[in-house]
Amino acid sequence: MKQSKMLIPTLREMPSDAQVISHALLLRAGYVRQVTSGIYAYLPLAQRVLSKLKGIMREEFDEIGAVELLAPALLTADLWRESGRYDTYGEDLYKLKNRDNSDFILGPTHEETMTALVRDEITSYKKLPLNIYQIQPKYRDEKRPRYGLLRGREFIMKDGYSFHANYESLDLTYNDYKRAYENIFSRAGLTFKGIIGDGGAMGGKDSQEFMAVTDDRSDLNKWLILDKSIASIDEIPASVQDDIVDELNKWLVAGEDTIVYAEGGDYAANLEMAASQFENHPSHTELLELEKVATPDAKTIEEVSEFLNVDASKLIKTLVYKADEDLVVVLLRGTDELNEVKLTNFLGADFLEPAAEDEVFEKLGAHFGSLGPVGLEGFRIIADREVEIMNNSVVGADEDGFHYINANLERDFNVDEFVDLRTVKEGEVSPDGRGTLTFARGIEIGHIFKLGTRYSESMNAKVLDENGKAIPIIMGSYGIGVSRLLSAILEQFARIYVEKTPKEDFKFSWSINFPKSLAPFDIHLVPVNTKDEAAMALTEELEAELKAEGYDVLVDDRNERAGVKFADSDLIGLPVRVTIGKKAAEGIVELKIRATGETIEVNKEELVNTVKILNQDA
């Protein structure tokens, strides 16, 4: 492929509006361009990477018996009304009308569509299980699109759906997808973790997320590619190393999720779902007499703790939430934070939000900061497990400016249910007791769900079982953020190239270091002077030989200065660059390995074999 025929609009400087390095490099290296907020065009280089990703996916899905199809992106709202999600999905749903004033949506996901297709075509358990998937754009009206392809309004997604007559069959397919996802992400060269996930708006109970880990910036060696003139990082002056560290830290750590995993164990979960070890040891502390005390102008945990000279861990915070239409009182230890996802899942609520203060004051007679459970009746009271082992606690008195000290469970207040509601903290013991919890940032790249009968029941999708009885179809759902993968890969494979100038100065710049399985081209042929007939003849000869061996080759045939060509080549990040320069007449070229910065001279007769050896070693 001739580079002059490609659309690769590289930029000389990093774009000022990018906040994460993947977004900056995708723009600067000419992979994508923003068409409007949150919506991107995938230019030829990006399209080639995406095609390779899709190819890997299709190979792995073939192995588990998944069959590809394509459903429309423009969907009738009627199906979403059947499932109940038309009104509950939220403001991210694109809603529109056609000329007949009928309601439609742009599909953010396709559970309803696939359920309807199967409902209308399959009536017997003998036709199950069925495992289908598609790769297509999805649409969600994000309030704040950001971080390039990581949070957009249009994005590419692989969504798969399986249909079963029993849960044993679902379990088998779920595990097949788990294995397929692990293979896909491994083949893409990603560092990732499979973690316990939240089903969220999908409606699933049992789910697993796959997260690309993004926040390790402690090892400078990981981020650098050194020019052949630099033997090791130790040769780089400390002041230059400091500048490189500043450059690294200038970019936000991509990923809106926090991964919680056990250092020294196997446990891993999203922060929204993570738990730590809980030991319900009975306390033998003497129960003191309940006493009401004035706490003027002390409303927060910190203020009450300081005013009463009591450790914050002795306080119980009382929160009031509206779950759908009901008010719920939630109790937590003063040093803990409520995990709203855990509360939502426990309640099975479609909507959860903090109650309005004026409504709380009307019901309880006190404002926020003075609420408590003592004598509280007529409310469902849910407490975190830690509250069950607290004694002689401080709670609000349901009167502004007053608190109770020495409040105790059962004697002074009651709780309807104890459940894990708190957000875990780094350093706590994992729930299985194997290792301590460590936090890392991550990008969600895949998610698998056991949906059960959530959609089949609401949409009346049934089959006849072996006894002729109509039963709801059991479902699974399996997604991969294909365009997000492109950003996740760059977050992990972006590199800073360091070189020494003839004046013994050091300079550095960002570049892409794609894994060979995904690079848009395998080899970049760069003739330094397109007017040099010997160089161009050798370029054509090498291109033909390499293509005959099955390599994807990009030829920089542009009439540009050598510096421009080399800078663009470094930016777009192909695994091997072959420079055809002054020794072209002698049949000698320079081969540069992107991943290491190493350069070697080879005769034209040795080039193909040398590339083969390098591919075997990599």
CATH class of the largest domain: Alpha Beta
| Rg of Cα set | 30 Å
Number of helices: 16
| Beta-strand residue percentage | 25-35%
Overall pLDDT confidence: 93
Description:
The protein has 618 residues and is an alpha+beta fold. It folds into 3 domains: 3-216 and 439-490, 2-Layer Sandwich (BirA Bifunctional Protein, domain 2), CATH 3.30.930; 291-419, YbaK protein (Alpha-Beta Complex), CATH 3.90.960.10; 521-617, Anticodon-binding domain (Rossmann fold, 3-Layer(aba) Sandwich). The strands form 8 sheets. Strands 3, 7, 8, 9, 10, 12, 13, 22 and 25 form a 9-stranded mixed beta sheet that branches. Strands 17-15-16-18-21 form a 5-stranded mixed beta sheet. A hairpin with a 5-residue loop joins strand 19 and strand 20. Helix 1 packs across helix 13 and helix 2 (44-63) runs antiparallel to helix 6 (167-187). The protein is globular. It comes from Lactococcus termiticola. InterPro entries: aa-tRNA-synt_IIb, aa-tRNA-synth_II, aa-tRNA-synth_II/BPL/LPL, Anticodon-bd, Anticodon-bd_dom_sf, Pro-tRNA-ligase_IIa, Pro-tRNA-synth_IIa_bac-type, Pro-tRNA-Synthase_IIa_type1. Residues 33-502 form the Aminoacyl-transfer RNA synthetases class-II family profile domain.
